[in-house]
Amino acid sequence: MAEQSAKAVRTETEKAALQLLRERAALVGEAATARHDRDQLVDALREANARYATRYADALAGGWSADELAKLGLDAPESSTTSRRRRPPRQAQPAQSQPDEVVTPADVPAQT
Question: Which of 8, 73, 85, 87 could form a disulfide with 4 if both were Cys (CB 3.0 to 4.6 A apart)?
């Protein structure tokens, strides 16, 4: 490398750096493609669940009972009104105690 000019060393180093950046950029690109595929599948699943719920309701309206459908392997569709359980809101943090103030467990409200 001692025989190379400063410009040649710089060019070689920049090429190596660009190759590393290309490899890193490819990883991000692959992640973006996977996320896109996931989003499309989520949408397709949502639509399939809606179609199934409609057809299941049609079967019930057509005279089938939920028990009969279950015996045939047709489980009740998930309710569209069902939402995920959400974490309860955080309680406000108690005020910072002064260094000479002693806080006992009885002074701190219990968290559930």
Answer: 8
**pLDDT one-digit tens code per residue, 23-41:** 999 999 999 999 999 999 9
Asked if the model's pLDDT at residue 84 lies above 60, the reply is: no
pTM for this one?
Answer: 0.53
Instruction: Please check whether residue 28 is in contact with residue 36, taking contact to mean a CB–CB distance below 8 angstroms.
Output: no
Q: Residue 59 to residues 26, 45, 72, 75, 80: CA-CA distances in angstroms? A: 49, 21, 12, 12, 18
What's the whole-number mean pLDDT along residues 82-111? 62
Contact 94, 110 (CB under 8 A): no
3-state helix, strand, coil in the chain (%, to 5): 60, 0, 40
Count Cβ atoms within 10 A of the Cβ of residue 52 and give its class: 0-12 exposed, 13-18 middle, 19 or more buried. middle
